[in-house]
Amino acid sequence: MNSRIIHQRETYIYFTIFALVGVLITNMFINMVFILAYPLLIGLIVQVILLQKIKKPFYQSGKELTEQLKLKNIFLVESNILGDEEGTVYEVHQMPFTFSNGLINKEKSYKLVKQDYERKVKEDLTKIAKWQVTTKARLVTTTHFRLYTIWQKNSTGYQLKKIEDCVDPYAKMNLIQWMIASFCTTGRIKYDKKPKEWASYEWIALR
């Protein structure tokens, strides 16, 4: 299992939601269009059920490892995203923060939130580096350039090497996903700063 499959399913779900909304709006002018809403709604329900079926065990395994390493801002999960023949691989993700975290950070200055975030990222990456020495596992991520910059700056002894082909092209967020993620992380809705370029990277130990 890997995040590419999950992100792909999420992309289909959002596409179905947008299509359903489009049908309902169009129905205001053309009544016959409403009949299309039923298969779209059924398809949406089926997709959500299938997503939860694969997403829950995947994130549960990541949650156990993340808690074991006492990580605060980074989520680590075993994956086959590079293919089963590539050995043990772990995906590195930003922690999926809750809405309540955004409400807490909303009361703090953005500068303080950013400093606290980077401090915890540095602590997490230090813990991961020590753990990775014993496991020899490969660490990969698909993210946008700003987060890549933060992770690279705080990855002591490692270089984030760009993978030629993006291993998870579905990781790129739409505007709604970005607004939710930015609020849950910082307490601010950064809708005007949605990143356009996403790429995959691998942590390579410096010799």
In a nutshell, what does this entry contain?
The protein has helices at 3-27, 37-68, 99-106, 110-135, 145-153, 175-186; strands at residues 74-79, 89-94, 138-144, 158-162, 198-205. It is an alpha+beta fold and 207 residues long.
Domains (count): 1
Query: Helices and strands, in N-to-C order?
Result: HHEEHHEHEHE
Derived structural class: alpha+beta
Q: Nearest-angstrom radius of gyration? A: 19 Å
Helix tally?
A: 6
Name the poorly predicted regions. none
Strand content: 15-25%
Strand count, sense and closure of the main sheet? 5 strands, mixed
- What's the mean pLDDT score? 90
- Count the beta strands: 5
Shape: globular
Terminal residue distance: 31 Å
Helical residue percent band: 40-55%
Structure description:
- The structure is a single chain.
- This protein has 207 residues and is of the alpha+beta class.
- The protein has one domain.
- The chain is built from six helices and five strands; from the N terminus they run H-H-E-E-H-H-E-H-E-H-E.
- The protein has a five-stranded mixed sheet.
- The longest helix is centred in the first third of the chain and has 32 residues, at 37-68.
Task: Set down the secondary structure blueprint.
Elements: H1 3-27, H2 37-68, E1 74-79, E2 89-94, H3 99-106, H4 110-135, E3 138-144, H5 145-153, E4 158-162, H6 175-186, E5 198-205
Parallel strand pairs: 2-3
Antiparallel strand pairs: 1-2, 3-5, 4-5
